[in-house]
Amino acid sequence: MDSASGAVASDPNRGEGPSAAGSSAPAADPSSSPAPPSRYESQKRRDWNTFLQYLRNHKPPLTLARCSGAHVIEFLKYLDQFGKTKVHITGCPYFGHPNPPAPCACPLKQAWGSLDALIGRLRAAYEENGGRPESNPFGARAVRIYLREVREGQAKARGIPYEKKKRKRPTTTVTATTVVASASQGGDAGGGSGSGGGDGSGSGGASASAQTTATTTSTAV
Ligand SMILES: [Zn+2]
User: Fold this and answer.
1) Pick from 18, 139, 185, 198: CA 20 to 30 A from residue 86's CA?
2) Alpha helices in the chain (DSSP H)
3) Distant-in-sequence, close-in-space partners of 72: CB < 8 Å, separation ≥ 6
4) CA 127, CA 120: separation in Å to the nearest integer?
5) 114 CA distance to ligand 1 centroid (A)?
6) C-alpha of residue 72 to centroid of ligand 1, in Å
7) Buried (b) or exposed (e) across 163-180, using 16+ Cβ within 10 A?
8) Cβ-count burial 41-55 (b if 16+ within 10 Å, e if not)
9) Ligand 1 centre from 97 Cα, in Å?
10) pTM for the structure as a whole
11) Ligand 1 centroid vs 112 CA: distance in angstroms?
12) How far, in Å, is the centroid of ligand 1 from the Cα of 104?
């Protein structure tokens, strides 16, 4: 009976260890520094700075306030030079091939998915930095249209669809409804008591709930 019960077992939840990966609970971290920004947040900040830098270097000079959807598109095209996605031109023998057997001279561009995600981050950053949603150039219709064109163009050029669309087949849907009508019992289940159901609202105050959390029960009688 060597019961060293409890005494030694200090709580194991000390904030050490590399575990607790996925837990979404905010682990109130007592160690000085605030939580580092998430990957998305830091990426967003980086993108925003890149864009501001782009504006600064723009010729003719361009301020954020004067920035339109057309400028955003210009920015996206500018970024293509840093892209890593091969987009075949129509004259390339590998146009439409997902896995070309040999290299070709077609340009590298930004993949549509990257641009789409980038625009989403910049759009958020714009408003977080005081921009009004109505004038958000990243949400401009022209930008959306441009992105769609890029997506469709790249899907064709690379032979990789970005979206699986449901194709409508030409009407051959044979709905085999085998109605098992054997032993027809007369009882039509659908029928009775269609009305009613009107009341029953309210009044259900004391529904058997064992919750003791409800603090504000302001029953105004
Ligand atoms: Zn090519």
Assistant:
1) 139
2) 39-56, 69-79, 112-128, 141-158
3) 119, 122, 137, 138, 140, 143
4) 11
5) 20
6) 27
7) eeeeeeeeeeeeeeeeee
8) eeebeebbeebeebb
9) 9
10) 0.59
11) 17
12) 5
Question: What token pair was written down for 205?
Answer: 């105050």
pLDDT tens figures, 37-52: 899 999 999 999 999 9
CA 148 to ligand 1 centroid distance, Å = 21
Residue ranges near ligand 1 (ion) with Cβ within 5 Å: 88, 92, 94, 104, 106
In angstroms, the CA 43 to CA 39 distance is: 6
Query: How far apart are the C-alpha atoms of 55 and 62, rounded to whole Å?
Result: 6
Cβ atoms of 102 and 108 closer than 8 Å: no
pLDDT digits (tens, 9 = 90+) for 172-201: 444 444 444 444 444 444 444 444 444 444
Tell me the HSE value of 59 on the side-chain side, using a 13 A CA sphere.
0
